[in-house]
Write a structure and sequence with these properties.
Helix content: 40-55%
Number of strands: 13
Strand content: 5-15%
Structural class: alpha/beta
Strand order of the largest sheet: 3-2-1-4-5-6-7
Order of helices and strands: EHEHEHEHEEHEHHEHEHHEHEHEEHHH
Radius of gyration: 21 Å
Number of helices: 15
């Protein structure tokens, strides 16, 4: 197998560029996107990326089989769904590498007895993700697991001037200079964690915007599954002087670098923010079913309770210094558990491709 014939394919939101797109840059492989907006975002935010825009009609199995031996993507069902189809159009074995798009506490409700999708090669950041896969039974459905470390943060550090300038131009120059910035990053409501995100967002704006600047980074699936409520909310608060919505900025680390504290729930952004060792506040859990599990991230900051919402800004100001100092060790330990040590991108690429080479040889009797 020609180990240079790898292609990344992104059919999801622009936020996946900060995961799969960065990986394609580090591995020097092209990325195909199917959405024109994602394509334009990729060209602006990731100028080193060899990105190509193709319609769904262009992505025939036959053409992919002719131009690639390995597909990198963010779809965990790809290997199970597409491998049998590729076998119908090509005698070779197409390989699939799953690239995660965040490390979060979501997915804990899955059970070992459930049918998990079969995966070929799954990349994980570190031990936290490995344990989640093991505890839910998903690990038994994955052929090979490879730890990557936090390559996204390493990439940001290598290009920090570019991304900090971009964040300054697009986000921070529009914010007041005399107010602390709270990054609010909730996930989207689902059966596992049915967060009333719109009601909570409205309450946070009402209580915190006079004292702080709220930088709101909503999950992209909010607009996909709740388009009416999302656009109504954005239309209502987009001009608010104490609120700034981040909707077209996929690179997360330049936003985290300038944020003074974090407010969130189960989002993977919370794990990214551990690195900065700043105050973290977590949304109340009284609205969640008893089966919902907060996960270890909630041990790295104060959980907002119902009584705190009588005077939320005052509570944050009162607990700010204690929050900063009390959870230092917990954040450091959890970050290490979630991401492990950084890996050199060249060595990581060699590890992935060597795994593919060996398993292809074994499958063919070589």
């Amino acid at each position: 197998m020609n180990m240079q014939r790898a292609i990344g394919i992104s059919t999801g939101p622009a936020t996946h560029l900060d995961h799969l797109g960065v990986l394609c840059i580090l591995f020097d492989i092209p990325l195909i996107v199917t959405d024109e907006g994602v394509y334009e975002t990729a060209r602006r935010f990731y100028p080193q990326l060899d990105v190509h825009l193709h319609s769904w009609n262009d992505l025939s199995l036959d053409s992919l089989a002719q131009h690639a031996d390995i597909l990198f993507g963010c779809g965990k069902y790809w290997a199970e769904s597409l491998r049998p189809a590729f076998e119908c159009v090509s005698p070779k074995q197409m390989r699939f590498v799953f690239c995660p798009h965040g490390n979060s506490d979501k997915g804990h409700s899955l059970r070992p007895e459930e049918a998990h999708p079969q995966q070929d090669i799954a990349l994980i950041y570190g031990d936290h993700m490995y344990e989640l896969l093991k505890n839910t039974g998903a690990l038994s459905s994955i052929n090979h697991v490879i730890r990557t470390g936090n390559y996204r943060h390493s990439y940001y550090l290598d290009h920090r001037a570019f991304y900090d300038d971009l964040a300054g131009e697009m986000v921070f120059q529009h914010l007041p200079k005399d107010k602390k910035i709270l990054l609010y990053a909730p996930t989207w409501p689902n059966k596992e964690n049915p967060s009333p995100v719109f009601d909570l967002s409205e309450e946070l704006i009402k209580q915190l915007s006079p004292t702080f600047t709220l930088l709101i980074k909503w999950h992209p699936l909010l607009e996909e599954f709740y388009p009416g409520q999302t656009h109504h909310f954005l239309g209502r608060y987009s001009g608010h002087p104490g609120v700034h919505f981040v909707t077209d900025f996929p690179a997360i680390y330049p936003l985290l670098m300038r944020s003074d504290a974090y407010i969130g729930d189960f989002s993977s952004i919370g794990y990214d923010y551990l690195l900065f060792d700043r105050p973290m506040y977590f949304l109340p859990r009284y609205f969640l079913p008893s089966s919902s599990k907060a996960g270890p991230l909630f041990n790295c900051g104060f959980t907002l309770m119902q009584e705190h919402f009588t005077s939320l800004a005052a509570y944050l100001e009162k607990t700010w210094e204690e929050n900063q100092s009390r959870f230092h060790a917990a954040k450091k330990a959890l970050y290490s558990h979630a991401f492990g040590d950084p890996k050199d991108s060249k060595h990581l690429k060699e590890e992935i491709f060597e795994t593919i080479r060996k398993t292809c040889a074994k499958a063919s009797g070589g």
